[in-house]
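lol ok so funny story. i was supposed to be doing the assay writeup but got distracted and ended up predicting the structure for this chain instead. priorities right. anyway since i did it might as well share w the group, maybe its usefull for someone
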Amino acid sequence: MTKSPAQALPVIVSLLGLVGLWALAARLGNDPTVLPAPGAVWQILLDEIAGGEWQEHMLATSGRVAAAFALAMGLGTVLGLVMGLNETVNRWLSAWLLVLLNIPALVVIVLCYLWIGLNEVAAITAVALNKTAMVAVTIREGVQARDSALADMGRVFEMRRGTYLRHVLWPQLWPFVAAAMRNGLAIIWKIVLVVEFLGRSNGVGFQIHLYFQLFETGYVLAYALSFTALMLLIDFGLIRALEHRATRWRTVTS
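and the output, tada:
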């Protein structure tokens, strides 16, 4: 669902204010090698797009983010549902989730590269493993916080498990799913950049590594901020629209 102009205005003004602060800091610093102005970074981005470099690396990173995100959300959602609905499983696997949550992402990435090799499978597996536990915990908390009265209603009407999950549990879970998706996108793409920084030959992380070695701050900002902009578009244009659609029943019943 598209946001109304009144709803979108604060977001636009806020982002423009952030750009204004950046421009002011660049002007006061007066050193383009440390912090180039927004206009200079924009020109670098246009040059990279014109040369085709930007598209190649953005597509590579986007593909890794999409694959890792789908894998983490799928596995994490199933695991969270099972743990939330079955207390025995929850007791046995809670310690596993704590271990996964507390292992640094860098360690998981390095181990996957050592065990699987410097390839796409290792890269995507490392990213997905880092996020799956967080998704599982979020979904489990959502299941455990569900309205017990609605669960009792489902038992009284002898709902089938699939019907109960779709019409009773899922609408209550959606805010937790949306939180996991939003948090997941924010974290996964950052971990993907680290994966590309350490062991890939293309992608935004690879480009950032290259320009870091060349001390090209403008190029680092151009690639990092352009992918950040893409993630913002996905959040505002897709996730929030799905969230509104899934929670319309609350407005109707209130």
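The domain at 56-253 is CATH 1.10.3720.10 (MetI-like fold). The chain has a mean pLDDT of 84.
back to the writeup now i swear
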